[in-house]
Amino acid sequence: MEKNVVHKYLRKNKKFPHIWCPGCGHGVIMSSMLRAIDKQGLDRDDVAVVSGIGCSSRTPTYVDFNTIHTTHGRALAFATGLKLAKPDMTVIVVMGDGDAVGIGGNHFIHAARRNMDLKVIVYNNNIYGMTGGQASPTTPSGKKATTARYGNIERSFDICELAKATGAVYVARSTSYHVQALEKYIHRSLSKKGFTVVEAMTHCPTTYGRLNKIKEPVAGMIYQKDHFIMKAAWDKLPEEKREGKFPMGEFVDIEKTDFVSKYLRLIEANKE
Amino acid sequence: MDKKIEFYESWCKGCGICAAFCPKGAITMDKMAGKPVFDEEKCIACGLCELRCPDYAVIIKKKDKE
Amino acid sequence: MSVELPKLGGKFIQMEDEIGSMASIIGASIGGLKSMTATSGPGISLMQENIGYAVITETPCLIVNVQRGGPSTGLPTMPSQGDILQARWGTHGDHPIITIYPHTVPEIFEETIRSVELSEKYRIPVILLLDEVIGHMREKIDIEKVDKNKSFKRKTPDVPNEWFFPYERNSSGVPAFADFGEGYRYHITGLVHDVDGFPTSKPDQIDAFMKRMFRKIDDNLDDILDWEEYELEDSEYMILAAGCVARSAKQAIRTLRDEHGIKIGLLRPKTIWPFISSVLIDKAQDKKKIFVPEMNMGQLLLPTQRFASSICDILPFNKINGEAIYPHELVSFIRRNI
Ligand SMILES: Cc1ncc(C[n+]2csc(CCOP(=O)(O)OP(=O)(O)O)c2C)c(N)n1
Ligand code: SF4
Ligand code: SF4
Ligand code: SF4
């Protein structure tokens, strides 16, 4: 018997609990995704979940859809081929921050530019979790990682700004604390056609947390609660008060014809 | 309100998130066992603990819904 | 292809890089399409990680590599046979692979069809290795010879969803491929997996999986291997060569036989990986010497030595200056060395 919405979509032949560390935010993002899929009323045979490599990319293992765990950074390129082959399939791509905008950054900007109809969920824990906490392109300046022991001297990427600039039709950010908003944004992205990005901020107690004195899972969520501010409030916030804080909410929601729809038209026009 | 809290102990990793953010203080962490203890009296079935549990170990059932 | 594919309802996409190209054709194949990509030089190095992914996930696809000279950017559009061993061992980890090496334009046409069939049949990426010389050549193709109605279809499962094991160990060694969207919701991963498709770290399951991957190729060599024998019947000497070098070898053989009375023939592997070892061992028996001319420093030489060095002498001829090997060079080299 199904216990609840989330349990309904978990693979019966997988062992639970999952491999994620106690209190890792990844589990919360996965359940938000499942609730959003359920709300959208998708037939699970017509849903694919594609990931790269990393803790976050273990998501497909657990969910009862057509699932592919690809190579590090390349999920979007695999998903692009799948979408071309199966235009009617809802293709969800889950990636870690390192996966999506580090090693996979090139695929990210080009999938966005092309407007491939892919539903991206980036699990952003600001670090390479699986390999033990190396700095990622989203590790904030000054924060610590095993490869940035003295504090990160690099600038970090804003994934939502990047998605916006490269042409995504829907861009939103929430956190593992703000679960209801997260589910709402993923649900909205599933209802859109085109390249959508939901950046889900997640806490990684084991590496990022340990190195940056937010060791307890609860502390990670409190941090999110205190530091992420809804866009409307953020816009009114004076510059000096924005320091150390981040906006969340829906940043882009526009309509643009996606690549595959255009290609199908091209076939129609040139068929022999 | 008529409700039922279902808890899967074997799935719970004892992170304490459910307890920390329960708006009614209906959950306390059993220090020895490292697992949450639910006070059904205080619970208002808001479902937040279910939504935030990273291990899908809590289910809040509202009886009136069934 | 960008012109022709849409006319036939096919799809073409120019990806951002060769890593993406390789990934996207695997994705398309998982979606049930026959898919291919093509590259040269650095591009084939970029594809290697995902070629390994196609191997371990047993996803059919075709990779065309028109070889160019040198490591790195090397010698753009100049001929070389420098990728023969990379085609075999380019991706990391122990793995089987099929590589086909045609030597004329019509043969590229036929072998492309055969490569796709082998790939679909054995669920393995196939590399079609070409020489620049032939890649840029124009020759006649008899398209009428091709049976257009014959199109190889991959074996798909016919069991109910709950009985489906995506990587089952059956007698053929090749599990049926469930295209995504057909109701079999299963998991594909580049981690070593058990019959159910989920990652495993159990030695007995790893062993069974790895061995099946090799067995499906090893048990079907009769079907996979192909080669040409030219003037071998009465020959005392043999040239072993592939691709454009085999064309020069054929001409050299004409000269050596007609003008110098040397009984020499050619053994030309069309399938170079897996290697035609049993054929070579058989043909080497009555030979005085085997010549192995290549546009590299001895890549086909290695398997030739491995299987025939105890049977007869083997002599390499290597040229790596960005030029093809000419027949007259072979004629004088062979005359000097017999
Ligand atoms: C080409 C390649 N380089 C490196 C690795 C090793 N690796 C595995 S996971 C990972 C980092 C994952 O970090 P992220 O994408 O942020 O996901 P997280 O684990 O934090 O969820 C790396 C570098 C790999 N698998 N492949
Ligand atoms: S290392 Fe971090 S991201 Fe990975 S499972 Fe553990 S807490 Fe989660
Ligand atoms: S949130 Fe879930 S895993 Fe964490 S203590 Fe509560 S029930 Fe256990
Ligand atoms: S449902 Fe709400 S009130 Fe009840 S225990 Fe969970 S968080 Fe507390």
UniProtKB/TrEMBL annotation, chain A:
CDD domains: TPP_OGFOR. One of its GO terms (biological process) is cellular respiration. GO terms for molecular function: oxidoreductase activity, acting on the aldehyde or oxo group of donors, iron-sulfur protein as acceptor; thiamine pyrophosphate binding. Keywords: Oxidoreductase. It comes from the Bacteria. InterPro entries: 2-oxoacid:Fd_oxidoreductase, THDP-binding, TPP_enzyme_TPP-bd. Coiled coil: none annotated. Residues 53-199 form the Thiamine pyrophosphate enzyme TPP-binding domain. This is 2-oxoglutarate ferredoxin oxidoreductase subunit beta.
Automatic annotation (TrEMBL), chain B:
The keyword Iron applies. Pfam families: Fer4_7 (PF12838). Residues 3-32, 34-63 form the 4Fe-4S ferredoxin-type domain. GO terms for molecular function: iron-sulfur cluster binding; metal ion binding. InterPro entries: 4Fe4S_Fe-S-bd, 4Fe4S_Fe_S_CS. Keywords: Iron, Iron-sulfur, Metal-binding. PANTHER family: FERREDOXIN SUBUNIT OF PYRUVATE:FLAVODOXIN OXIDOREDUCTASE-RELATED, IRON-SULFUR-BINDING PROTEIN. This is 4Fe-4S ferredoxin-type domain-containing protein. It comes from Muiribacterium halophilum.
